[in-house]
């Protein structure tokens, strides 16, 4: 496929990967919207805590695609600025969120994520991510690692 999804001209060669990437982007927007549509601060905080819980479950299930979508939503500027909501998060919940954030961090070329994915028990759903060309080789590498583990 030679990273067909990374170029508009050849994107038709990998329509399912494009759909997965687009779905993750929509999911990120949904996470943000589900929090921001609440007008009551306490309800917003409950929804925010819910997404932290769901992110932890995705991590436990090795669903890194959804985990990254949720993490991106929670780290978006529109959610990050909700200081009153974030203050209601317990220390334990904040630790869980920080762990998830560190796992999916781009630091050291996604080093924590690469290590977790490599040691993950199958089945595992890697983060397919963005169509940015600098990241495509990275995500393709993990598809190869996951499929090599199967055979």
Alpha plus pi helix count: 8
**CATH architecture classification:** Orthogonal Bundle
CATH class reads Mainly Alpha
Secondary-structure element string: HHHHHHHH
Structural class: mainly alpha
The tally of beta strands, per DSSP, is 0
Proportion in β-strands: under 5%
Describe the structure.
71% of the residues lie in helices and 0% in strands. The protein has helices at 15-36, 41-60, 64-75, 77-80, 83-87, 91-103, 107-119, 133-150. The model is unreliable at 131-151 (pLDDT under 50). With 151 residues, it is mainly α. Helix 1 packs across helix 3 and helix 7 (107-119) packs parallel to helix 8. It has one domain: Son of Sevenless (SoS) protein, Chain S, domain 2. The chain contains 8 helices and no strands.
Summarize the structure.
The chain has 151 residues and is mainly alpha-helical. Helices cover 71% and strands 0% of the residues.
Keywords:
151 residues, mainly alpha, Son of Sevenless (SoS) protein, Chain S, domain 2, 71% helix
Secondary structure elements and their pairing?
Elements: H1 15-36, H2 41-60, H3 64-75, H4 77-80, H5 83-87, H6 91-103, H7 107-119, H8 133-150
Helix pairs in contact: 1-2, 1-3, 2-3, 2-6, 7-8
């Amino acid at each position: 496929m030679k990273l067909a999804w990374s170029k508009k001209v050849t994107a038709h060669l990998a329509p399912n990967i494009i759909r997965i990437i687009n779905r993750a982007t929509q999911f990120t927007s949904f996470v943000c919207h589900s929090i921001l549509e609440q007008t009551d601060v306490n309800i917003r905080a409950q929804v925010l805590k819910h997404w932290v819980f769901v992110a932890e479950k995705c991590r436990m299930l090795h669903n890194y695609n959804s985990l990254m979508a949720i993490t991106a939503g929670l780290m978006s500027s529109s959610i990050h600025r909700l200081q009153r909501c974030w203050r209601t998060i317990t220390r334990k919940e904040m630790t869980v969120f920080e762990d998830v954030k560190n796992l999916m961090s781009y630091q050291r070329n996604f080093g924590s994520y690469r290590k977790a994915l490599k040691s993950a028990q199958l089945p595992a759903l890697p983060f397919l991510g963005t169509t940015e060309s600098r990241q495509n080789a990275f995500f393709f590498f993990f598809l190869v690692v996951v499929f090599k583990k199967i055979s």
